[in-house]
Structures are given as structure tokens and as C-alpha cells.
């Protein structure tokens, strides 16, 4: 496989995953903002910007800090490189360039979500955003389905590798920002929090029911962290994503007959993550842990690009 | 000279009905309500959008990605018509290859005074870099698209030769797919010869022309300018269907005159490059130094005989419109017999008499830039405004050598679905001719382009033209026609 093709596929995986996550984030924020016991006016939307790592670019856009403006910025703004629209534009542009490596189904699902978003580019108001988020989620499920039916070859593995790296980043950001923005100043991490807010976080990652299955004792912040960090059966947990990265790299190495720095780093991360206990983590500080994780994830991303020469 | 009422390929010239072999098709057309045809056509176009079968329109930002309009009514050629056409096409393309080998070699045709030497040697399409070069297996133009027009039952003319990187073959294949799905009854009515052998035929052609030093199973790639190019869909479609890598310039590197492609497993040696980028952009070291699309050192590897370029650099001299006017002489010179397919009569404005005639008859002629394409830089006298005619008059007077003129032909029509029902529209036909080391292969079919505007003679997609499926019928002996 061409190095350039590998890079484009990897980024398709990242972009589709990011579009899906942003759609979920918008949906959750709309819910958070509608809670009777919500925080300060517009706080939910500002935290959504922080989760999406878009606070700075939003400030630069000069838009007013209203829910509608932030929602549009996250969903549709061409000025926001992480908006759903920008992600789908980039995913489709990449997909066009690697048509030969995709199945017709996979291409069609990306193209369809792109065409659909163009139709909705005038989406106004909360209802419009909800409908948009729904359709983006549905299309990304379609893409995952198409991915599942693809031949298990390099193309498949690079798409999943990108998705796994992106998903790890998203989950870490979600956990991190919620901890800091939703906690009243001075409150202890792990202290009492409004259960509705935690439920909403679980909703972002489609894990409300999963949580109840695994933890019969009810909603506890440290258990939510446990679920989203260590539970391998939870596909969005950091542990699951890190294992997926190792697995995909191993598959690719099996075909190319080469392993390298990316493989080495991925294995180290997997081992380290399993080594840390919950108690240690909470003592050292969850925020520090997550910030380190996000940095390591970016290092991992660069190691992959270097190893396969698409950096 | 006002063009007479055009010959309709399905309904004939007579008012009294279809040509006998097409009674069934005419009946199908009459019996299928326009609304039903329209529904099927929309379904086909929706599928094209979904698949992303789009092309870019230069200079039109708002509609930077469009599909070429597809017309549901097919164009049909009988076995006898096709046999004559394909014999003529093979003769012509063989002559083009001989001509190119001669021009870049001994130049006998110039010595014999068949063509004025300065027309070739001072032509920007003549690539001095290729002088003295011999491409592997002496094939220059591996893939040719010959634009044909028709004015009557037996009157076919070659309008243009495309000997560089002709496009459109993906539409031949995708239009057939759409027709098989949407109008299966037509394929029961007629024994239609398949076109889906094209990708395999192309692959065989590419492999056959690999350099002698290539591996037993040569590595072929398709070199595209990238996904912003207007024909990118076709590039990816072909690479996919042939089963070869679709590469861009940055995926290739030349090391010691060997071409490599960069893969996740390391470097892989490349033997044959089906390039869909123009000569000018192939190699910044040999052609335009500002090209970012090409591969530095590619020409050196090519001239060292380590890689085959399909088509060879320099084939543009053979489809130059000034050279075109000499094509009957060229065919006779190399094949020893008269051209089976005639040219359209052509006035070379570089010659004073022809220029005078052209200037005196601008409102009746079609005037073209010798190096223009895609319907740009072209005057269609009978439908042009006063202003346009005067603009061309000035341009002609200033640089006559850049133009040719041709009579306005009464191009044949094919019934076409329009907003006001089925009506005749003018068409042309571009069959594709493959030349390998041993054989010439012509897939029975081609790209039929249709001018969707009433009365318009310009079929180019960049000028609002559409496409149709082109059915070539099997001979009666091949398959029973009766139904």
C-alpha cells in the first residue's frame, strides 16, 4: 500500500470518529443546558468548546457566546477545523483520493453524510442541531458497518487505527474537561456531583445502560472513570482504544513484515495503563493523568506517521 | 450554406418512421411514457451523485463538482456500422503510431514533402526531448480516443484525434451499468456487445508494453494529478477496475534511472506508468520546471528504457488540429491505402487562400484553435453573435496560424429526453482504441456525447453537454435478434 494512501485512510478514520464525537457532544450539551439544575448561563456550551479543544478558535471567530452560535460553530463552521462539517469535508476529500482502497459501501456512507450535511448547512436552532447530530451519528454507524464488512487488509486496519487514536483522545478530553468545568471551585475530585450531569457524560459515549450492567451500586464518579479508563469491554475506554492500536499495528506488521517505533510505544502504553491503579490515579490527580495521556496520544500519532512514512 | 435537417440515427431522415433495424427501439421510445423515462433518468443521476461520478468545471466555483448529465435514451450502432468504423479506427491509429515513430525518428514523411516540416518542427506539441527516442515495443499512442461525427446513414467523419490522454471511458462503462439496471428490456430486445472487458483489455495492453527488463509480472500504476483534477473519478475508477495502484507524483521517486513507488513496506519498482498528466507536467527536470505534479528524473528513467510511459511523451503532435488536416495523407503514406474514415474538410488558416475563405464565411464555419480542447476557444458561426464573430475575425487576422476552420456539419441526432419530451439532439461518438505490443483492441462501444441544448452542436461536458450509452449490436450470425 502507498504510504500516502495509508495516511489518508488513517485520517479518514480520525475525521469520521471526530465528527461522530462532536455530534454526540452537541447532543449532550443540549441536554445539559436543559437540565433544571444547570450551572451558569451558557456554561455547558463553553465546556463543550473546551472538550472539542475549540475554545481558542471560537474566540477568534468573534461570534457571540450564545448556545446557538456555539452549536453552529461546533457543527457547521468552516472556520473551525474540528467542526462536523470540516471533518466530513476532510474525510470525503480523503476518501475521494483513496477511492480505490475503499469499498463502494464505505465510500458511499462518507459521501452520503457529506451530501446530507450540505443539505443541512442552514440548520437553525436547537431542533435543527439535534436532527443534524442524529443524522451524523446514523451515518457514522453506517460507516462502521461498511468498515466491518471490508476485507481485513491494510486499508481496513489503517482506518481502524485512526479511529482508535481519535477515540482515545476524545474520551480523555471528555473525562478531563467535565471534571474541571463541572466541579464547583474547591470541591474535591470524587466528591458529590449532580447525577444528571454524569448521566449526560455517559450518554455522550452511549454508555448509560452499560454502566448500569457493570456497576449495580449506582452512579459514582470514580466508577465512571473506571469504566471510561480501564474497562476493555467498553469500546470507548482508554484501555480498549490503546489495545485496539496495538492490535491494528500488529495486523499491519504481519503483512508488511516490519515493526517499529509505533509498535514499541503502543505496547508500552498498554502496559502502563494496566499498571496504574484507580487509587494511585486519583491520588496523583486525574487531570494530570489525562493531560499526560493526551500528550502521549499525540506522540503516538506522530510515531505512526513516521513509521509508515506519511508524516 | 444552411445545414439541412439532420439525420436521426433512430428515426432516420424520412418522416415515415424508424430505420428498419430500429423499429423496436422506436416503438420502445413511443411506448414508454416520458414520465417513466424521466424517473429512470433521475434514478441514474442520483446513483451517479451517490457514487461520486463527478467532474470539476474549471472556473465555476459554485458548481465545482457536477455530474455530467446522463440521457436515458441510448444510441445504437449496428454490427455492420461498427465493423466499418473499427476497421477505420484501427487503420487510423496504426498510422498515427507509425507517424509518431517516423517524426521522432528518420522523419521520412517530412523529407518526402507530405507535410511541411516547419508545421511539425516548430510546433509546441513536438517534443524535442523525444527526438531519437524509441519507446518500448515502438508503441507511442497506446490509448487513443477518436471523436467521430455522423451526417447520414453511411457518412462517418473523424472530427478530432485524441492521442494524448483521452478521457471519458469511465462514462462508457458506468452508463452501461446504469442502462442494464434501469432499462433491462432493451438488452432483451437487442443483442448488445459488452463493454465491461475494457479494464482487462487495458491491463493487458499495459502489461504487453512493459520494458524488456521488467519483472515477469510487470508492476503497472496509474499516475494522476490528484483528486482536484476534473477527471479524477475516472482515474480512480480505472485503477480500481484494473487492479493497479493509483499514484500521484509524490508517491514516485527516481533513483539511478529506476522508478520506485513509496509504500508502507518500502520501495516497489514500477515498470509501466499509465499517466493521466500532460507532458508538460511529467518531469520538472525535462519539461515545465514549476510542475509539482510530476516526478523529477522520470524522463531520464524513461529514455534509459527502464519504464514505459503510456502514452509516450510527444504524442500531442499527432492530434494537433493543424496536423489533423493532413491525416488522410498520413494514413495513405503509412498504410498504403486510402483512409477508411474521412476527415471533415478543413481550412488551414495559415494558408492565405484558406484564411481569406474563412474570413469571408465566418458566419457559416466552425473555427477552432489548433491547440484548443474541451470546446474552449471555438466559434460556431451559424449560432454565434455578431460580437463573437468580430472577435474571432480580429484574432484570425492577428494569428492566422493558430486556427483552422471547418464547415458546419449537420451532425446526426438521437432522440433525447428533454424538458418538453423526447426530441432530437446532436451527438458525437468517441470510441477508444488500445494499441499493445502485438494487438490493436477496440472495445465495441464508446462515449456518446450529446448537446442538450436544442440546435446546439457543442457536445463538450464543459459546455453543458451530456452523455448516452452507446450500444453496439452483435451481428445476426453471432446471436439471434428475433424476439
Radius of gyration of chain A, in angstroms, nearest whole number: 19 Å
How many helices of chain B? The count is 16
Uncertain spans of chain B:
57-63, 478-483
Distance between the termini of chain B: 44 Å
What labels describe this entry?
heterodimer; A: 311 residues; mainly alpha; 74% helix; B: 483 residues; alpha+beta; five-stranded mixed beta sheet; four-stranded antiparallel beta sheet; 16 helices; 22% strand; globular
Summarize the structure.
The complex is a heterodimer of chains A (311) and B (483). With 311 residues, chain A is mainly α.
Give a description of the structure.
- The complex is a heterodimer of chains A (311) and B (483).
- With 311 residues, chain A is mainly α.
- Chain A has one domain.
- In chain A, 74% of the residues lie in helices and 0% in strands.
- Chain A is globular, with a radius of gyration of 19 Å.
- The model of chain A has no long low-confidence stretch (mean pLDDT 88).
- Chain B is α+β, with helices and mostly antiparallel strands and 483 residues long.
- In chain B, β2 and β3 form a beta hairpin.
- The relative contact order of chain B is 0.18.
- The chains are: A mainly alpha (311), B alpha+beta (483).
- At the A-B interface, α1, α5, α6 and α12 of A face α2, α9, β5 and β7 of B.
Blueprint (SSEs and pairs):
The complex is a heterodimer of chains A (311) and B (483).
Chain A: H1 3-34, H2 43-51, H3 55-61, H4 67-76, H5 84-97, H6 104-119, H7 125-148, H8 154-182, H9 195-204, H10 208-214, H11 221-229, H12 238-256, H13 261-275, H14 278-284, H15 286-307
Chain B: H1 23-31, H2 34-51, E1 70-77, H3 79-103, H4 108-111, H5 117-121, E2 143-152, E3 155-162, H6 169-182, H7 184-189, H8 198-208, E4 220-223, H9 232-242, E5 245-247, E6 252-255, E7 258-263, E8 266-269, E9 272-275, H10 279-282, H11 298-303, E10 308-310, H12 316-319, H13 321-324, H14 327-335, E11 347-348, H15 352-360, E12 365-369, E13 378-380, H16 386-398, E14 403-407, E15 413-418, E16 421-430, E17 432-435, E18 440-442, E19 447-451, E20 465-472
Parallel strand pairs in B: 1-20, 4-5, 4-9, 9-10
Antiparallel strand pairs in B: 2-3, 2-17, 6-7, 7-8, 11-14, 12-13, 12-14, 15-16, 16-19, 17-18, 19-20
Helix pairs in contact in B: 3-14
